[in-house]
Design goal:
By secondary structure, the protein is mostly beta strands. The chain has four helices and 15 strands. It folds into two domains: about 140 residues, Pnp Oxidase, Chain A; about 80 residues, Beta Barrel (Elongation Factor Tu (Ef-tu), domain 3). The longest helix is centred in the first third of the chain and has 8 residues.
Amino acid sequence: MKQLESGLAAHIATGATTLCWCWRLVRRDGTVQGFTDHDRDVVFDGTTFEAASGMTASEMRESVGLSVDNLEITSAVTSDSLDEEDLAAGVYDDASVEIFRVNWTAPAQRALTRSGNLGEVKRSGIVFAAEVRGLAHRLGETKGRLFQYACDADLGDTRCGIGLTNPAYRGTGAIVSVQSPRRFTVSGLSAFQDAWFTHGLLTFTSGAASGQAIEVKSHGKAGGVVTIEIWSRARLPLTPAQTFTITAGCDKRVETCQAKFANVANFRGFPDMPGNDFLTAIRRPGKSR
């Protein structure tokens, strides 16, 4: 059972309350934002919780045990600090969330009712719904190594050992034409073969998306035209001459590790591990495999 701050408990006991909900979001880039369902801004702990944001929350449920308790926050993108393009670009993915019950006449009287992280964000026009996952969802994440065919290292990390500052594995370019927020033609990469940067990482170095890093879905080269498609939307607007850096991609197969990077000594998968065909094979008496 939660222990309420004495002032808040006394306020609730009066039977005539001035309570509101406040949400504090801390994005992965460190940006802190506050929102409230009160009609005036509420300020505490150095955060201004913005009023008139249209933020509402579903019913909160808490259960005993390690099951994941979720709730959903819905709102229209009406806040100057809550940008539709940032939502679409995944800037708020996995942001930490704290939800407070606050006496808006005396914000020192408050209780932290829930903390967690933003999960799936669904959008329809200017309306969005964000899932808030309880802390127990971290217990469902895979930790440690997996026995699998594919390599579980990230290209360029200490376990992999490939230096991505090597010009053979790194390129710089600029957008030539924009086909969509995820697909565009580029200059500066004509020296690299087709698909060299597929599964790589593209980081914008100018424009509205400057600093945003997104995995590359495909890198194509046909008739002298180089096209890049990324997995998620970039922050808009994307414009011609907008610059970026891009690093080579790896599909985690041992054949790619050998042929593309000559780094099979550091391969972190198990390519010779027996598969289901071996486990289900019929073995005849007197014969060994």
